[in-house]
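ERR on first pass: missing label on line 2. Operator R.T. fixed the label and resubmitted. Corrected input:
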Amino acid sequence: MIRRLDLNPNISPCNPKHVHQLVEDQLSDEQADQLAQHLCHCDTCRHLLDSLQTTNDTWNETCTVILEEEHKQTSTQLTDVLLQHAERPRLSPTFARSVLEAPSLPKGESSETGDRFQKLATEKMLSWLKPYENEADETEEFLGKIDHYCIRRVLGHGGMGIVLDAWDPKLNRSIAIKTMHPHLAANGSARQRFVREARAAAAVVHANVVAIHSVNEDHYPPYLVMPLIQGETLQNRIDREGQLDIESALRIMSQVADGLAAAHAQGLIHRDIKPANILLESGTDRALLTDFGVVRALNDATMTASGMIPGTPEFMSPEQAAGEILDSRSDLFSLGSVLYTMLTGHSPFRSDSPLAIIRRVQQDTPKPLIHHRTDVDWAAQSLVDLMLCKARDQRVNSAQQVGQWCRELLAHRLHPSTVPLPAALQTQTARKPMGWSQLTIVLSVFLIGLALSAGALWWAEIDSSKQLAKPLNTTPSQSDSNESAPSSTTTEAPSPSSAREIEAEIESIERELQLLEQQLLTPKP
Amino acid sequence: MSPDTRPSLLLRIRNAADQLAWEEFLATYEPTLRRVLRSKGVQSADADELIQEVLLTVLRSIPTFQSNQRVGAFRRWIATILQTKLLDFRRRQKSREDRHLKLAQRSHPDDLWQVDSTTIEDLDKDLDLQLEHQIFFQATQAVRNMIHETTWLAFWKTEIEQKDAMIVAAELQLSVGQVYVSRSRVLAKLRKFVAERRANDEEVT
Ligand SMILES: [Zn+2]
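pass 2 clean. output:
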């Protein structure tokens, strides 16, 4: 380095003092110009400068905040509203219906203003596209271009990015493009994560995983090219049809499990398995898993800046909710939640705040499937139980196994006399399937009737038993004193203060019933 | 106005007639509180309400605020107000949730409570960090107007957007050396602005 400098008479000698003065902003303009010339050729001084300005995590976070605030200022409230919707937990089934994390507006709100808002928001989102010029006398109109791809329309968007329907004129085919919002792509580490995760996902080649044709990071913002799958998400289908028939559910589950097994074999964890990330191809029976880590990578980028849990945690595993280090078994829990959702029409851990959902994911046992439908067999319940095991070492341990069991269950349903149930799912429990389900129905009908007619008295009994069951070291809180109120007024009917409260109480009674059932049905040793 | 010659923000907002000071206080603390609350998992609609409550309390009780002359006393006082409001909010939220999850929650009745019992020290630290971010952001707004557009862009693209200096140099038709120098000069100005603002805002006498 020094040798080369000596040989070139045009280059001034190193002056580390000037580098230090530059950092303190103490150079005159003339000195600064000289140093600029020197820095063009001298790696040593550039390294010195870099080392004097090393960035730490706090500064990186500051950069993210600056970008966020800058973006807020320049884009008025439009994007704020979009982001707000994306961050809101899913309240109605119609809400989570797009390919991305969340759509811009729930269906119910799409009034005329909603449409106008959508249009404005779309224009805003796509303002960075290259203008489309009709060069080849195409009959079709496009919104704009990204590199050589012609953009037809927006398929979905959320707080994190956009999915576009596009035309590839070189290969003469329709494709889907997934890109980051430019303001997020402006953050170097978010951009790098997006690209890194996308590359890893591109390595998974399987019929049940949406392929990634290419990852283009030279473009700003970076984007992925994927095949355009004609069809809908599993979330859409459940929103529309409610619970699926058991055969369809098992068919979808076995395919998704196979796709996931291929990813796990590559050492990849999906981290965000949920019905909105499972595509159902129309015209075929094919189910495809999408969004490997990519959307989660984007979420994490915004999460580090805001500390917020992105989207809904409904399909998280307990270890994920606790922020622990994940392995592939976390995906299997999420897959179990998906299976439960297909079989019942709704996710197993629901509540109206993300924190409450997280608590339920960590502590609650979802209601048995039999509560939601009478045509499930015990083996399906065993499978769900094995997947939704809170302790990961007791959980089913591979996606491959899940796929295998689903196929065996399906074969058994179609040919009960020739194909036996998987042994592991039979021996999982000592409870007898027939007696169990019949007894449950009888008991439920009887007890619910009793509960509804006996009203306050019944409630008071449950309540006082609950008081007794409480551990002694419980910190009393405001709500406890509220709860104990009914026991002192057993003869009075509960005042119907709100329909919501009554609904909540019925729900509580149902839960108590569930516990009772479990006690009754667990065979005595 | 040069930041080092004005009286401290605290003194100015104590003077009820100083509308500008109050606006400046809001511009700094409103986004700061919002980010702190977001990091505590408070959803945006709830955050709006809480921020209103905190700011109103500050406005009402600033005449009685007794400074102990220590650096950061003002921020800590705000952290105390925030903690009170946050606990109130959690209590309301908890009793609402309890009605829904009465039985499910029975085995671990005070888990959420523990998760959410945020200490004043904790909030003070969060406020400190988010204030730093916010003042840096305000610094970018101020410094941008003081310097040449190209100098600013060289800084913005390399430091904030973390693009490669070579690429930025080509984009802006500057030499790499000029990009390096521009970035360093802007960074120095930002740091100076932030240091002065923070020293000034924390001065309580
Ligand atoms: Zn040198």
